[in-house]
Amino acid sequence: MTTIPEKEMNRACLPLKAAMDERPSEISRAGQGSRRRRARLPQWRAILFGLLALLIPGEPLGQPSPAENGRPVVYLAPIEGIIDLGLAPFVNRVLEEAAGAEAAAVIFEINTFGGRVDAAVVIRDALLNAPIQTVAFINKRAISAGALISLAAEKIAMADGGTIGAATPVQVGQPGAPAQPVEEKTVSYVRKEFRATAESRKRPLLVAEAMVDADVEIPGIIEKGKLLTLTTEEAMEHGVADFRANTLESVLEQLELPGAEVKRATPNWAERLVRLLTHPVLSSLLITVAMLGIILELRTPGFGIPGGLGIASLALFFWGHWLVQLAGWEEILLVVSGLVLLVMEIFVIPGFGVAGVLGIAALLGGLSLSVIGAGATWAFILKAVGRVVFSLFIALGASLLLLRLLPRLPFGRRLILETGLGAGEGYTSAPESDRGWLGKKGIALSPLRPAGIAEIEEERVDVVSDGELIEAGQPIKVIRVDGNRIVVRRLRTSTERSEHERT
Predict the structure, then answer these.
(1) 34 φ, ψ to 5°?
(2) Long-range contacts made by residues 379-385, C-beta under 8 angstroms, separation at least 24?
(3) Which segments constitute the NfeD integral membrane domain (predicted)?
(4) What confidence tens digit (pLDDT) does each residue in 154-197 have?
(5) Fewest CB within a 10 Å sphere: which of 280, 330, 456, 478?
(6) CA-based nearest residue to 201, from 142, 265, 147, 257
């Protein structure tokens, strides 16, 4: 989600929009009533982040509790820059740690021009459900998605010169290109999210809606056709902000927590890594490296560096998108099934048929669903699929190039079998005993689906059909011998041949 601020703000937001050019400004999975497990971080995922956080140097376990030292504890967490799905695990962790420490409050210092709607909704739900007092300290701006997060806090404090609002969703295009309006249903959804949040926190409903929808008119505040953005003074006047504060000490005084012990929370390495891995550019790069490694591994003997690199890249891709609630078991199973089908198509099933098509479709579907949400427009869906297809083509082209170059490189010669075996030195591609079957006729002793057993000249032979499923008892003919693989085709009856000629 981005905003439509004033011209000056557009210039300030330009670097943010460039970083967000591939991000959808659409309805989140949580907001559309899709899988509810994606609307809130599941407990076991929170436990996973807790275990990862233990690896970060922190305060000793023997720290006195607030009751022991007599001072209340307050957590301070920053929300700044782009609001993306990688921010949600950090907010959830801070809320859980603060609740476990029986802290008096969690203060979120907000300074953002916005970001993704679905990310803001996940954070909004966490704030509304938090068992601890939450405070939004707007210093200096809470625009777009930042406004929704601020409204979800129990109390809002604003610094002098602060702003809040301008939250209509737009679709961001290429860097430098103007933002495009979204469909009315998206605006309607976001408007109601703001209204529901304002209802929960007893804040002015129309004021919240006017931040999203330009059709909302409030006499004396905003006219129809304009988006509402409030300054600190206006937010205080209209009941959006609870109090004014320019420093953290001032916020603590207003909360009647002077002298409280402040614990400053920052994203740990795992949360920073997740935000990095879910960036569109890096996620596309991970897909390319993963597919490149897998293709090279299938074309080289044994299992080595390409396969390990491919699996590691694919694991990093899904790990990051799993933790930010974009990818689930469905997407992972689709990708794994696609890879299995493609391997079967290459090594087991002759030719290229249904298995190959299904494998490519499953691979594209799983990877594409892992980078888009359930409210995305068709334009964004096509863009996401195009990005995945582009990554796969880059991987395919790079693999063909590397396979040509590897035999010329010292390192590559260790991976490629260069020794050629002629008929006098080893085995020919097809032994004469196998070549003798070419053109022979027989009967399928077992169903050929596609591999099976046939009887040819009173001899049981392992054969493979050329793609057609052949039932037991059907007449067959050997049409090709590939190495030690004998490929057969079903013989048509005279009636079938006549019908085929008529058609």
Answers:
(1) -75, -165
(2) 379/171, 380/24, 380/26, 380/171, 383/22
(3) 282-397
(4) 999 999 999 999 998 876 655 555 666 777 878 888 999 999 99
(5) 330
(6) 147
Task: Name 112's bridge partners.
Answer: 142
Query: In this predicted model, what pLDDT tens digit does every residue of 89-133 receive, in sequence order?
Result: 899 999 999 999 999 999 999 999 998 888 899 899 999 999 999
Helix (H, G, I), strand (E, B) or coil at 44: helix
Residues whose CB falls within 8 Å of the CB of residue 203, separated by 6 or more in sequence, listed in order: 151, 197, 239, 240
Q: Which fold has domain 7-57+65-268?
A: 2-enoyl-CoA Hydratase; Chain A, domain 1 (3.90.226)
Handedness of CA 370, 372, 375, 380 (dihedral sign): negative
Residue 121 has a CB neighbour count (10 Å cut-off) of 27
d(CA 173, CA 22): 8
In this predicted structure, what is the pLDDT of residue 235? 97
Structural contact between residues 104 and 67, judged by C-beta atoms closer than 8 angstroms: no
Side chain identity, residue 137:
F
Contact partners, residue 352, CB within 8 Å, separation at least 6: 345
432-502 CATH fold: OB fold (Dihydrolipoamide Acetyltransferase, E2P) (2.40.50)
- State the span(s) of the chain assigned CATH 2.40.50.140: 432-502
What is the number of H-type helices and E-type strands within the chain?
A: 19, 15
Report the alpha-carbon distance of residue 257 to residue 76 in Å, rounded. 13
